[in-house]
Every structure is written in C-alpha cells, then in structure tokens.
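Lab notebook, bench 4. Still working through the backlog of constructs that have no structural model yet. Next entry is a single chain of 294 residues. Request: give me the structure tokens for it.
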Amino acid sequence: MAGRFRRGHTGTVDHDVEIRDIDVPVGDASIRTRLYRPTAAAGTTALLWMHGGGFSGGSIDMPEGDAVSRAFARGGVTVLSVDYRRVPPLSRVRRWRGAAAVRFPTPVLDCLAAWHRLAAEAESLGLAAERIFVGGASAGANLAVMSTLRAATEGLAAPAGLLLAYPLLHPVLPAGPPAAGQGLRTRLLGRVGQRAVRMMAANFVGAANLARVAEAFARPADLDGLPPTVIVTGEHDPLRPSGEAFADALRSHRVEVDCQLEPDVRHGHLNHPATVPFDHTMSTFSTWLAAHGG
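Model written out:
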C-alpha cells in the first residue's frame, strides 16, 4: 500500500496546501477522502477529520470539512477528511429512493477504513504513526469518538488525542443550565434541540433498530482510557450541553480534557470561514495540538 496516496487522483495546490482526492475501499463499496498536505514547513502530525451534518447531510466540500482542513494544513498538519456514507435525509415528506439505506454502524466503519489507510501510509507521507489525531464537528465528532472506541478491535493504535467541535455525543440531549438563567428564546431553542437530537439519533440507527441507539453513542463505561481531548462548544448552540456533559464525564474517568466555550455563536460556526469565531476556534485547536505533540 505504500505510496498510494501519492498516486491518487490529480491534486491541486492552494497557497501552501496540496489537496488530493483519494478513493478508499470499504468492503464492496468505496468512499471518497481528501488529503491535505502542507507544501512547506510540514510536520509529522496527522489528523483524521469528519464533517458534521446530522449523520444525513454535509460533505467534505462544505467549509466545516474543506476550510477547516485547509486551516489545519496551513499550520503544518496533514489532514485526511472523510466523506463517509450518510443515512437517509431526516424528513417526514421525502422518501429515500436510493440504494439500501445506510445506517449505523456504516459511517463509523467508513471512518475506520480511512483511518487504516492513513496509518498504513504514514511512513511514506513522512508522518509519525503515534501522532495521528482524530476529530470532527457536530455529528462528525460522534463518529470520531465512536471510531476511537472501536480502534483497538480494528487493530489500530489509539489516537494521540481527540478534537471535537460543538459535538453531538448523546442520543438524548443532557440538561443545560438552569432555566432561571435563560431567556424565552434560549429555552425554546433548547426544546427544539432536544427534539432534533432524538430524531437524529433515531434516524442514525433506523426505525427497525431503535434498541441500538445506545450502541451508537459513547456510554460512561466506554470512556476509560480515551486519549486527551479538546472540546469547543458554542454559547448559543442547542448542542452545547452535550459537549459540556461529555467533558464532565471524561473528567470523572480521569481523562485529560480541555473544554472551551466559543462566545456568541450558534451551532456550526466552523462553516463560516474568515470570521473571528472560526479563526479563534482553529487557534484553540492548533494551540492544543502543539501542546500535545502535534
């Protein structure tokens, strides 16, 4: 397998980043991944990155996938962004008319296949196998955590750390701050968030497998031994309680965790490049990476 990334699809160079699309086989299927490599001042650190989209939307072309990967690469980190297969759209009106519906654990297995490929190619890319980090945003953060929990059974070494942006890590949204400290709009958004999370979790596993919802999200008993983790939440994000509750759970399991609040932002602020919150969050991640061998 050595060198296959180098012989992938024709790449492009954007400023200081070489970008190349790579097809990765997963069983009888194939998924698209995108490799971002620094053209100058390249380090030996790599990041496997998963975009968000509620498990049913998004792609590696959205800013949360592409702009984030470019920003990491300009900082010297090689990134493999994963275009995992997505579940049917969450809709009561539209019916799924494609092939057999994707459900959990297929997206997780796609991420693991991309991780295997990155690990196998690490030496040929000048990367250190012990410096592979795993991360994602929103639903992609859940895939990052679930991939990490399955890594050992797949013969993969544990990642050097986890980077999670406004993560969706619970099938039922944990309680947020006391209602007395919230305005009417915040309380309404919280209720909408509770309902949306339940629907996304159920859609992830499918109506016929609702009993498996708990398997699709990390349980407290799973958290022992997770690597150092950095979490960025948004002040006005309905999913904020999920990231904060996960950080508390990690601390209770003696896992090193740094949970940072991005002020005055809603969910998905990494989809808005060239803004102060985007730059600040990327700086938070980069600083944390540097402090953890990245």
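Notes after review: The radius of gyration is 18 Å. The domain at 5-291 is CATH 3.40.50.1820 (Rossmann fold). Flag for follow-up if needed.
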